[in-house]
Design goal:
The complex is a heterodimer of chains A (507) and B (414). In chain A, 32% of the residues lie in helices and 25% in strands. Chain A is α/β, with parallel strands linked by helices. Chain A has 2 domains: 236 residues, 3-Layer(aba) Sandwich (Rossmann fold); 119 residues, 3-Layer(aba) Sandwich (Rossmann fold), CATH 3.40.50. Chain B is mostly helical and 414 residues long. Chain B contains 17 helices and 2 strands. The chains are: A alpha/beta (507), B mainly alpha (414). At the A-B interface, α10, α11 and α13 of A face α10 and α11 of B.
């Protein structure tokens, strides 16, 4: 990166929301053609900054220069016209429309008599998607695609807009390792075309793999901008949190007790799909006091496995589930709860939180009948119960009456774990529990899981990040296309071995 | 963000929009008392109050049911037909049990009256169960399931009425069944003994249900996030079953009251369109159609506000005011919901009349308000003959006001 003039330049940008200053006096230059990473913990102001750059937020203090000229966007359309596209962390696709229709949404190609020309759009979409190594049919509905492919649709949309600046907000948070590798290749080819990329992430390996420069935000302030070649992951993490993260070994010297849960030949059918099954002959054992990790690519059946164990699967599974020596067959999550199983779901916002309820109500929802008799809620007991557990988990909230949505991702996750701890589970199922949780809170969650298994429960967790499984779990099972392909003790597992097992069936 | 609270309930006794609604009710009453040329609120406060209380109780009973279903994330469009259906079931049951006395307009006795009322309420439970089955087992969207019964139940009631009267009276059957029983006329004549206590009891029941029971919390959870509720071990299908039964049963209680009120079960015209009044009252009272949000005080104030405004217009227009009822409900719903969002609209800096849509919306609003003004002033005696001019004037004022709102909003935007 030579000293070419900045394509984006912002000068003392400040954005205040009622009660909080999201950004304070941030000044930043982005050089044309560079890949500039913005890192920071949740709540550091990354998203606000990106929303300003992409025209989502239009009222802020300070100056915004694009290629040397001051600009003032009235909305995202202005930003798109100026060549800035954003790929949001939560994708903005119309699930009921096809991939092609999504790519050309709002700019539909017209043909004869000004009628919509679907054929032309599908062809153009197909070309764009092929460039991105995406093998999907442009006529497929966006909602039926995997997250990784949906994201490529958004990137294809940006390409079709001829954007020369692309903002990617935590693009890998829901991707499997192979999809991440594909995304890296896509990013490489975008850079060859001269696209400037602003990359938001809190995964250090990605940031260091991709970036030219790295800007660290903390509490709405710009801490420093560094060249990748002149810094280290440790320094950046230090700047992000303002303290060193100790590399604790979460899970040393745990001894597993008796078998809590045994699964024999569990199969889950998948009607209408070529493979015919989501899970096939899965057998596993979970012992008291251990954390069992489930690795696998997206679509390997990790979530489905946990859903089967929790009685929440869409189809009826076959095979045996033996909990504490007795065979169980759950037809509703209620029965699993009663039997002492808890499930912390993967998609917190969609499957876990009650956004209209406060923190306390979110925590107590599973154990309300315990507070009173005959279906009455004893409010003070409810509050004491929720207060105890949220204190135990160190949930950071102004009060139990605060809106759950006012909490950070990590604290929301703690509330949901707390919800299940109140049910005094024997087995806790955690489906990708650290998704969308920042670095500091992750370490806290790991420590919490360690405490819990030492307290005598068993945990089965999945994760889309292999290093996480290698840090936290005692044993790791690998799923590939619905079958169990490998089982490792932590001491013998490596990322390489797990990836090999996870891609076994796919070949 | 929110102030620290020692109370377990985040829901304060009255929230901001409920207080605003209460204030609006008071304002409407004061204006009516002042402007009404007969000054009936001042001269006959008791009669006026009684009329309003009666109407509030009648609408309120099934608005509570509509509110509970809305909070649970569903919708029940069938209330109006359910009212007609349960009334017909009530009258038909009595007709079958005591045909002679019914035909001769003699008292049917407590047992038969009880059976009629019990049958009506049972019919509500059965229809609610049917809704729950269609929605949870057949997986119809609530809108479709209850739309089907909205259309179907009224016709069912008419057929039932004809069949039962043909069986008992001979001939080709009647379109209505007269009910002259003294128990029913007692209900009609003593609103403080029956209508209002039933409404108050039902409101208290619903308040406790939503605020203090596990089932109530599960209703909020179901409406707020159905999938999360299921994965928290809540039997969402049962909660839905309860919600739709509650709604249908409240409508069937209202159905009995309408039979008592009009001394007749008339499936053709009883309760037509009432489901929308109930939904409107719930929405005005702050229930979110997305589910998960709403309170009993809100629903009650919504009902009171709606009835007070309708009554106020009746007092001001004197004759033929029922024509305006639909317009009033529509306008009140739009204004109430807009008011609830006005802070959001201001905060987001969104334009109220953007672009070409605004350019056409402004004269549309001015024209409709002008015409409504002209039509209503035509009935006011001391303004006779001036209606067209007043309408024109009002339309012009509205046009200029809204246009200036648009212009200031446009010019304040850079």
């Amino acid at each position: 990166m030579d000293a070419s003039s900045p394509i984006i330049s912002i000068r003392s940008v400040t954005k205040k929301f009622p009660g909080v200053t999201a950004l304070a006096e941030v000044s930043l230059d982005i050089t044309a053609g560079e890949l500039h990473s913005i890192v920071g913990e949740n709540g550091a102001g990354k998203s606000t900054l990106m929303k300003i750059l992409s025209g989502v937020i239009t009222d802020f203090e300070g100056e915004f220069l694009l290629a040397g000229k001051p600009v003032k966007f009235g909305g995202t359309r202005d930003a798109e016209a100026a060549g800035i596209s954003i790929i949001h962390q939560e994708l903005n696709l119309v699930e009921q429309l096809s991939a092609a229709a999504n790519i050309f949404l709002g700019r539909e190609l017209r043909g004869w008599l000004g009628l919509r020309d679907d054929r032309a759009m599908e062809e153009a979409a197909g070309r764009l998607l092929r460039e991105l190594e995406c093998e999907i049919d442009p006529r497929e509905l966006a909602g039926s695609l995997r997250v990784g492919d949906q994201q490529l649709i958004e990137i294809a949309k940006a390409l079709s807009l001829q954007s020369d600046i692309l903002i990617m907000d935590e693009p890998t948070s829901a991707l499997t390792e192979s999809e991440v590798a594909r995304l890296y290749r896509v990013i490489e080819s975008l850079r060859k075309r001269g696209v400037t990329i602003l990359y938001i992430s809190h995964k250090m390996d990605e940031v260091f793999h991709l970036s030219d420069r790295i800007t660290v935000l903390r509490d709405g302030r710009l801490v420093r901008t560094l060249r990748r070649s002149e810094t280290s992951a440790k320094e950046v993490t230090h700047l992000m949190v303002g303290r060193e993260i100790e590399a604790v070994d979460f899970g040393g010297q745990r001894t597993a007790g008796e078998v809590l849960l045994r699964v024999e030949n569990l199969s889950l059918p998948w009607p209408g799909h070529a493979r015919g099954y989501r899970l096939k002959d899965v057998s596993l054992e979970l012992r008291r006091g251990e954390i069992l990790g489930i690795a696998g690519l997206m679509g390997a059946g990790r979530t489905e496995l946990l859903e089967c164990l929790f009685g929440a699967a869409a189809e009826i599974p076959s095979g045996k589930i033996i909990l504490g020596g007795r065979e169980v067959r759950f037809r509703h999550p209620r029965e699993a709860c009663r039997a002492g199983i808890g499930l912390v779901t993967e998609d917190r916002k969609r499957l876990g939180l009650f956004a209209a309820m406060n923190v306390g109500e979110n925590v107590s929802i599973c154990t309300l009948d315990r507070t009173g008799t005959f279906g009455w809620i004893n409010c003070s007991k409810e509050w004491a119960m929720a207060g105890d557990v949220s204190q135990k988990l160190a949930v950071k909230t102004s009060s139990l009456a605060a809106a759950i949505t006012s909490l950070s991702g990590g604290n929301q996750q703690k509330c949901i774990i707390g919800r299940w701890l109140l049910t005094e589970p024997r087995v806790l199922l955690l489906d990708d529990p650290t998704r969308g949780v920042d670095v500091g809170a992750k370490a806290e969650l790991y420590r919490l899981m360690d405490q819990l298994v030492r307290g005598g429960i068993g945990i089965i967790m999945t994760s889309s990040e292999l290093p996480e499984l290698l840090t936290v779990c005692d044993r790791i099972l690998v799923l590939s296309e619905g079958r169990l392909t490998a089982s490792f003790l932590r001491s013998e597992a490596t990322e390489q071995k797990i990836m090999e097992a996870a891609t076994l069936g796919a070949a | 963000m929110s102030p620290p609270s020692t109370s377990p309930q985040s829901r304060l006794p009255l929230r901001f929009n409920e207080l605003a609604l209460l204030a609006a009710i008071v304002v409407v009453v004061i204006i009516t008392a002042a402007v009404d040329s007969n000054h009936s609120y001042l001269r006959q406060p008791y009669t006026s109050f009684r009329d309003i209380a009666r109407n509030v109780a009648l609408l309120g009973i099934f608005a509570l049911g509509a509110g509970v279903v809305i909070i649970a994330g569903g919708i029940d469009l069938s209330a109006g037909s359910m009212i007609a259906f349960s009334g017909t079931v009530c009258a038909s049951t009595m007709m079958l049990l005591a045909p002679e006395t019914m035909i001769n307009m003699r008292p049917v006795g407590p047992l038969v009256a009880f059976c009629g009322i019990a049958a009506a309420i049972l019919s509500g439970f059965l229809v609610g169960t049917l809704h729950a089955w269609l929605i949870t087992a057949v997986r119809l969207p609530p809108f479709v399931a209850t739309l089907a019964t909205l259309v179907g139940l009224r016709s069912f009631a008419r057929a039932l009425c004809g069949y039962v009267t043909a069986k008992t009276l001979g001939g080709s059957g009647n379109t209505e069944i007269n009910v002259y029983d003294p128990y029913f006329s007692f209900i009609r004549d003593h609103i403080w003994y029956v209508y209002v206590p039933v409404f108050v009891a039902l409101a208290a029941f619903t308040y406790l249900l939503l605020g203090s029971t596990v089932l109530g919390r599960h209703i909020y959870a179901l409406g707020g996030n159905e999938e999360a509720a299921r994965l928290s071990g809540i039997r969402t299908d049962r909660v839905k079953w309860f919600a739709y039964c509650f709604s249908a049963v409240t409508a069937s209680i209202a159905g009995v009251f309408y039979v008592a009120d009009q001394s007749v079960a008339s499936p053709v015209n009883q309760g037509v369109g009432y489901e929308l009044n109930a939904i409107a009252a719930a929405v005005v009272g702050g229930c979110s159609l997305q589910g998960g949000i709403g309170t009993v005080p809100g629903i009650i104030f919504g009902v009171v506000f709606l009835r007070v405004v309708i009554d106020s217009v009746a007092k001001l227009i004197k004759s033929g005011s029922d024509i305006y009822e639909g317009m009033i409900v529509g306008i009140v719903v739009v204004l109430a919901v807009t008011f609830g969002q006005i802070r959001q609209i201001r905060a987001s800096g969104r334009q109220l009349f953007p672009g070409m849509l605004g350019v056409i919306a402004i004269p549309t609003l001015a024209l409709s308000i002008g015409i409504i003004t002209a039509m209503t002033t035509a009935n006011v005696t001391y303004l006779k003959g001036l209606d067209v001019w007043i309408g024109l004037g009002v339309a012009l004022v509205v046009l200029l006001t809204l246009a200036s709102v648009k212009l200031t909003q446009v010019s304040s935007k850079p």
